[in-house]
Amino acid sequence: MSLKLPVYMDHAATTPCDPRVVEAMLPYFTERFGNSGSRNHRFGWEAEEGVDWAREMAAKLIGSTDKEILFTSGSTESNNLAIKGAAYMYEKAPAGSKNRGHIITAIHEHKAVLDPVKRLVKEGFEATFLEPGEDGLITAEMIAKALRPDTILVTIMWANNEIGTINEIPAIGKLCHEKGVLLHTDATQWVGKMPTNVETDNIDLMSWSGHKMYGPKGVGALYVRRHRPRVRLQALQDGGGQERGFRSGTLNVAGIVGFGKACEIAMNEMAADAIRLGRLRKKLEDALTAQIDVSKINGHLEKRLPHITNISFGFVEGEGLMMAVKNIACSSGSACTSASLEPSYVLKALGVGDELAHSSLRLSLGKWTTEEQVDYAIGEITKAVKKLREMSPLYDMHKEGIDLSKVEWAHH
Length: 412
Ligand SMILES: Cc1ncc(COP(=O)(O)O)c(C=O)c1O
Prior knowledge:
Elements: E1 7-8, H1 19-25, H2 42-62, E2 69-72, H3 75-90, E3 102-106, H4 111-122, E4 126-130, H5 140-146, E5 151-155, H6 169-179, E6 182-186, E7 205-209, E8 220-224, H7 253-291, E9 295-297, E10 308-313, H8 318-324, E11 328-329, E12 331-332, E13 334-336, E14 341-343, H9 345-349, H10 354-358, E15 360-364, H11 371-390, H12 393-399
Parallel strand pairs: 1-11, 3-4, 3-5, 5-6, 6-7
Antiparallel strand pairs: 2-8, 7-8, 9-10, 10-15, 12-15, 13-14
Helix pairs in contact: 1-7, 2-7, 3-4, 5-6, 7-11
Bound molecules: pyridoxal-5'-phosphate.
């Protein structure tokens, strides 16, 4: 069978919708189209039944109760509601005061966490942005050192979206509970891939998203703990009072049913998927690092999600590399800003230099990634790097044994 190109290796950006998810959603666009808030007729009840079922599936996947699940439009919204909603509710001093409360996060979180925290800082809250080591990890020890008497919230992602590294969430949560501080975790890359239990993992608030786990885009959830402690949030959106007043707006019933189906499938299949993808990722990494010298896997080598790898290739130019591997849909270590290509701030946080960050690839595998696709990616990437290096005088010097860090370059 011939391979269909391009090969999709960007599952950390988004996943295809599982056909079983689409099938579960379809009736909710046509026959069961009611507003789940309509209490007086069958159309409303059927829609509500769908939402209730999805809430049960979401709760089951993370070991919570149904009442602790709020449906949102995705992780960006869940993060905003958790972080700002908790900050406004637990502030130590009212708006206009100097220090309204202290928040701990990390510099290599997703923008959907960093930007809400930065906005809160502008509004009078204080924040500590922890810096990881070369392994990319945030540990309970780092949190312990940063905690202050006025800390109200810790927000640390479970698994990083660029490098796949896994933070010590259960231990961080234990510490937070001991100190009476709330823990929010952006678990967008984690839930549905790895086992999660909000009770034993000591989590108070947790965000995740449908489109990262073979569900639809534009739907996500926020877990909000109701016991020990009962977490309160200030709603960010006013209106009809849906989702127990935390998130007004008519529910996206079809999307929510799809989200529920994705949660149900994940419960049954994630363990086997993780084993299979871990094997494929190992094959990919072993081959690339064996065939290409001066290549490095970014982030902790063990404490990582099984389906993501982020590899830097020395002596190649980033844009050239992306062009040369255009038959592999993946992400680079460059982020497009309005003006230019910036090196990834996540890789920079690990101490990866600008040049190497640009010449990095994030390859993320998924449920339908085949061995044939992995073999193809190995061949294409190896060929591309070798070809680009044929044009690199620096690579020639490196091969001749010249230590490039000691070379004094002429500046014009
Ligand atoms: C870690 C992380 N947080 C948040 C988001 C944003 O999620 P959504 O697209 O559901 O708003 C993403 C997706 O890019 C992510 O990877």
